[in-house]
């Protein structure tokens, strides 16, 4: 990675730490430069004339115009959330601890999250007839579910692998939505969902097993009739 | 049309001399063993490029707008508007700008007008720098028709973009550096970028508007045909100077591609966005023109 890319990544990382005070805004990106280590901005903090956030033009140049810069910041913050799950985990933690850790990551910025998620769900280009793009939300839930399963040393295979992740994605999405409206009960809600999910998982596994059986049966029938 | 003809006649002596000098320079190249650079599709000794480019612009200075209109069918005005509006001068208070290779003042005027109209900013200033005295003279003449004439908001300086005088263009002193349709005419682009980095303040922006590689596969052949057939012909018809227009068209093809130029900007020390359209650069009209930006961090 070149020095230029490293600096951009550094600025983005610093900006994610400013989200709790400035929100997912261009202001957070602009102020990130003030906290770069070993920079003139920090060295000359005594002299207010030299200590300036990045200009709007500079933010646009580095991170994108208008809301594109905010979207970049939101994605960077979500990536940091994934790293937070990994860094906080110990070997062989259970999935409940990992998901609780991820919910903790949301707490300092809960007030800004609804707008951030709404921004991610805005379809691009906006002239499309779609009012809402569900893909970012699904990707977000899937990433967390996948990381949680990996960190909890999940050993599922084949269809069970997918079932596990779909289940965890659904649980986490529900818990996160609950957290936006009732932060104090979010963790207990997550626990109740995880408890209930084990039976759901079993049912899903049964459905998939039955589907597999039906598929193989039909395959055998078609082969015996010479159609395959 | 009669004005164009009289203008053509008035400039004929200069153009003929420029053409002869152009031919002489290319034929004497083989006798030298020196560092070389491109002058359009021709390879010439590096030390000759400056004077040859100067001759081209001496020749086209008085008809510069006509040249740009011919090359871009008038669209260059829209590109320059887009360039300046993307920079938003004056949004966060007065800025000290430097517009290099901006002799005729197109960009400088747009910067000042934008700051004034959008943000009621009458303190933003632009220093117009050009190596060509004729182009600066043209710019000065144009600014006399505006409210900025004889104000501290605009000033004109004759200087080489590759070697800005240190005493006049101090380190870390500008908030915005712009160069529009000029960097491809410089002998050493890295030197220009190095000087840009030097004079910009930390946190300031470098912005370059330039003709570039057309990425659209349908538009590319049409653009090539127009460039190599129509533009030199227009140069001959409108100003009687085919060689200068031929150089201008060839110089566009020799300019680095969008990712290559973005890398050169990073090599000079700037930080840019990702190497994709819409980040480190922004293609206009499929890449016919392109805005590259970088930030000194």
UniProtKB/TrEMBL annotation, chain A:
Ranges of residues in domain COQ9 C-terminal: 137-187
Name assigned to this protein: COQ9 C-terminal domain-containing protein
From TrEMBL, chain B:
Job description of the protein: Methyltransferase required for the conversion of 2-polyprenyl-6-methoxy-1,4-benzoquinol (DDMQH2) to 2-polyprenyl-3-methyl-6-methoxy-1,4-benzoquinol (DMQH2).
UniProt organism field: Rhodocollybia butyracea
UniProt entry tagged with the keyword Mitochondrion: yes
EC identifiers of the protein: 2.1.1.201
Protein name (Swiss-Prot/TrEMBL): 2-methoxy-6-polyprenyl-1,4-benzoquinol methylase, mitochondrial
Binding partners and assembly: Component of a multi-subunit COQ enzyme complex, composed of at least COQ3, COQ4, COQ5, COQ6, COQ7 and COQ9.
Higher taxonomy: Eukaryota, Fungi, Dikarya, Basidiomycota, Agaricomycotina
Membrane topology: Peripheral membrane protein
Binding site for S-adenosyl-L-methionine: 104, 130, 160-161
Pathway: Cofactor biosynthesis; ubiquinone biosynthesis
Family: Belongs to the class I-like SAM-binding methyltransferase superfamily. MenG/UbiE family.
InterPro entries: SAM-dependent_MTases_sf (IPR029063), UbiE/COQ5_MeTrFase (IPR004033), UbiE/COQ5_MeTrFase_CS (IPR023576)
